[in-house]
Amino acid sequence: MKVNFELNGRSVSWNVEPGTTLLDALRAKGIVSVRNGCDGEGSCGLCAVLLEGRQVNSCQILAPQVEGKKVYTVDFYSKDRKLSVVQQALIDAACVQCGYCTPAVTLALHELLERSPDPDGDEVRDALSGTLCRCTGYEQFFNAARIASKRLKEPAYAEAAAPEFAPELRHVGKNREKVDAAALARGERAYVEDRVPSDACHLLLLQSPHAHAWVKKVDVSKAEKMPGVVAIVTKDNCPDLVYTTAGQGFPEPSPHDQRMFPRKVRHVGDRVAAVLAESPEEARAALAAIEVEYEVLPPVLSIAEAKKNDAPVVHHGKVSYVVGDPPEGTSTEGDGRDDPILYQFPLHADPHRNLAASVADGIGDLDKGFAEADLVIERTYKGNRVQCTPMEPHVVLTRMDGGRLVIHASTQVPWHVRRIVSRVIGIPEHKVRVIKERVGGGFGAKQDIVVEDLAGWLSWTTGRTVFFRYDRAQEFAASRTRHLMEITVKLGAKKDGTLTAILMKLDADTGPYGQHCLTVPMNAISKSLPLLLCDNARFEVKSYYTNLAPAGAYQGYGAPKGSFALQTALAELAAELKIDQLDLIEKNRVRSGSRIEILRSLGEGRPGAAVTLGECGLGEMIARGRKAFAWDAPKPAADGDWKIGRGAVIIQQGSGLPGLDAANAEIRLLQGGSLLMLSGGADLGTGLDTVTAKAAAEIMGLDMEDVSVVSGDTDTTPFDKGAYASSGTFFSGNAAVKAAEDLRRKCLEAASVMLGESVADLALVHRGVIKGKKGQVTLAEIAHQGVQGEGHSELTGFGSFKTEHAAFPYGAHFVEAAVNVRTGEVKLRRYHAYQDCGTPINPALAMGQIYGGVMKAVGHSLYEELLFDEKGKPLNLGFLDYKIPSIYEVPEDFHVELVPVADEVGPFGGKSVSEISLNGTAPAVAIAIHDAVGAWCREWPFTPERVLRAMGKL
Amino acid sequence: MVSEYLKPKTLDEALSALADAASVALAGGTWLLVGEEHGIRPDLGRVVDVGELVSALVERKDGIARIGAGATFQAIADSPSLPDSVRRAALSMANRNTRNRATLGGNLGADKSCASLVPVLLALDASVEYAVRSADGKAVTKTAPLAAWLDAKEGLVLAVAFATPPGLKSASGRASRTACDVATATVGVAYRLEGGAVMALKIAMGGFGPHARRMPKLEALFEGKALPSKAEVEKAVEPLLGAISDQRGSADYKRRRGAVILADALAGATEVTA
Hints:
The structure holds two protein chains of two kinds. By secondary structure, chain A is an alpha+beta fold. Chain A folds into six domains: 2-77, Ubiquitin-like (UB roll), CATH 3.10.20.30; 79-167 and 179-188, DNA polymerase, domain 1 (Orthogonal Bundle); 201-354, Aldehyde Oxidoreductase, domain 3 (Alpha-Beta Complex), CATH 3.90.1170.50; 394-478, 2-Layer Sandwich (Aldehyde Oxidoreductase, domain 4), CATH 3.30.365.10; 481-655 and 806-950, Aldehyde oxidase/xanthine dehydrogenase, molybdopterin binding domain (Aldehyde Oxidoreductase, domain 4), CATH 3.30.365.10; 663-801, Aldehyde oxidase/xanthine dehydrogenase, molybdopterin binding domain (Aldehyde Oxidoreductase, domain 4). Chain A is built from 23 helices and 41 strands. In chain A, helix 18 (688-699) links the parallel strand 32 and strand 33 (707-711). Chain A is globular, with a radius of gyration of 28 Å. Chain B folds into three domains: 2-49, no CATH class; 58-163, Uridine Diphospho-n-acetylenolpyruvylglucosamine Reductase, domain 3 (2-Layer Sandwich); 168-271, CO dehydrogenase flavoprotein, C-terminal domain (Enolase-like, domain 1, 2-Layer Sandwich). Helices cover 28% and strands 28% of the residues of chain B. In chain B, strand 10 and strand 11 (197-206) form a beta hairpin. The longest helix of chain B is centred in the last third of the chain and has 18 residues, at 251-268. The chains are: A alpha+beta, B alpha+beta.
């Protein structure tokens, strides 16, 4: 049927099906700025349009309903590639991270300012109430609204988005526009979904309805004859090998235990069959025609069940090792039916007893330490499964080009994608090209190869272009979750609070497969225990297979759960000792010059070494928080039913994996004297490309607009380990620094020849001029000679970064919470995050990373939990039932303060900033709840119900 | 998926189209079209778009408030002519994008247990104006108490009306995990205070059955008595609420939460004429 309406000020007349949503109609016509984050629930708001001047969700409007109406998308404001006042304000306020929500936010603020030119905070909150954002933490949206409001009256209005640092540098430490922000704010084509050609085939999955079952028979005889069907893959015709989906450096510390289509499904949502068809409708119809015969098995639905002697066995295939022998007493013979398991090296595993990996170590004499203690406490903490929920779910486009497989990926690890997919297909790596598109949020979930293996295989075998996107329910059920962990902490202390012994016993639930099964739980130890100085410390980590949703990486890795357990236990100890919890932290924390002996046991799979800490900013951070919260004065009085409590914690993270990872970058001097940075780093919305651009501009004496960055393309950029383990700025940034320094050296040498002066007499000054004692030459002139018939060659710089140096960012988080004594509800009145990221490369963007990290942690602390029924079926597979924070959940006084302590190895002194931000919220809130109502909440999320139960009121 | 889209120009046409059992009335679409994007919902078949056919007018005249079925939640929330309890109920749907589309008529038609407007309208003893098809195919307007209409729905809702006499106090309440969550419990209350006693008390709640409905047993607890304290309400009400455990909480917690919002509503009710 025909629908006539006004779109962005122009009349259009479109043919649509009666059931076509406005979202689908717009995207089909190339309006890609309307995004799909919730598959029609109406809960994410990313498909928003202005309909007759009102912000509405286009996924819940049928296209025929807009007959005769006026519809506006963000494209209206991006006309002629210009930026509206709101778009520019969002960029200036550092609100564009992954950019997936930016068009919707832009429309909401335009609508708001139209009806309320001077909006207050409540109005901004209300205007953005329908838009979910996972990156920014919403806080800087308030700044953007204020800036836009003022600029509408006073166009030249400007304000500092954040404090600035490193006065000796031109760009580093200064607030500069994120290099991809304008394109993302305009809603231009940037993501995988924007690259899909009209003739692409569509891939849909048939997923297991059972948590644990043999797949006895998959009958595709009817389905394969159906119209439009190109190929069907099942356990019977998929590649017969096992691999890990973990995008980690090879050899991975994760068992290879996953077949493309397993003979035995191990969780609800596991792969059973895939249909590739020429349209989604045809794929859907063929899926429905596949008949599957299962032999249902009892599932393992908890760590306790997994440990039982007679527990069902999640993996019963033959176990083998590439290097090393099986641990003594473990079972390796398979049942002759299940898929095999291959360990690259021993992880102290016993899969046939559901133990995927384990490790134990420590320092000192634990028994002696506890014997010397005046007080010993032992507490168990549980952190439940939560989902990463990037607003762009897992998505991939694969195609053949010149006999090679090209993968357009939304990934954090392009090189690991290339390695794993080429191995799955059985082709050498040179046959595969991975192009990382802009990523609509990753947060760890996209460190795994969740969709690329299958789509790549089908493009390779059929020659067709394949589009494969998880819908939101699939993203919840079959993406990667934060491991459920149960951590028992035993602390011994003297009466004065001095710790004499620490024992952390951690059990993790890795789910059906073992990606990250050892490293995530180990991270819970390695990023919490080294914060405290204690001569006697030990940890015991075990990771179990179950039949629940797959676990994996999530921002913070294991650290948020380790921090929750240890920091809360420390506060419980303080309460028992009747010592102020902050005083107890002060007594036992690491500080400048501390010798951290426990690091001998925390070598990430290699022998570790004790470290003598350089300067540590924890003291300053604690002092600032103590002052801001008037810690030593009485806390605020109760407000009716709401009792007030305060909590504070210290946190840490790493900056990449020293000795394990590597990053590379290349930089080219182009004609005219501009630069092309080829970075291996994977910017997933975090601003890494801006870090590398800044490095280039700073070192080459140029401005940001003189640099373009191409990154994460395995054909055109050099190897990088990927975006994980807080490595972006430290590793990829350092590679860019080294590349730029290499190019600067070459330019100086070329100038020396051109000017006839020694290099020692030359200086590269702003803007792209090399000055000597006698003369000067510009970078443009040097570049020009590089492409002429005489003189030097084209100049490129190359940088490779590896290190044994560990750069620890530290932080102190302070919370003031209100707890309703009748309902158990918790409100965050104040949240202050004091963090050291070394020299902040982009201060406002760094603060945005912290706001966003904290809000994700607010989610897992108070609201988020993936729930299952008694058969292992997930219960909350959408944003209607799984609650991530909206702008309404942002703390009233939400404050981030950078307290930099420059690192001697980091780029310009920089360290990591993002992941650490998630480590403080759960323990700080738990401590504040106790301070308010006297109850310890030891299981996250602290739902009102759990709070009431902890209070003994339910 | 939707197979046919109709947009009738008259009530007669709309009722004729809706007479077919395969037809369903569509207004804002915020409930009806959940999941339509990817065919998650079962087939809707033929949808009849009545969103602009019914009035969206919101007004109060001569002590009677009247809300057109086409009025959006945002329009209701923005209307100074309506009692605070009704505006708050509309505003409790915290997602503005949804408020800009969701209509009163849709809320009544869907009649979900979590419906934001139904409890307060039931408490205010609202009546429904609706159109049915007569034997000769013409639209005929009828009026019925909202409570009765919800139990035996017929026709197409045109408007809801309720009296706002001096002395009548009313409140609405809602509990949810986050601001933009589906409600765990909702409440609407209305009563008069006569000589310190609660009179003509009406309580409606959602979240404690398949639909939001009046709660006569709860009304009987407090009718004719002095306004109870919050603690008294909670103690008396909590055991009487029937709830099920689901992803939004256990039955025990929901009973507690429901009792608390009822206690708060009774204590916080304000004059509807204000």
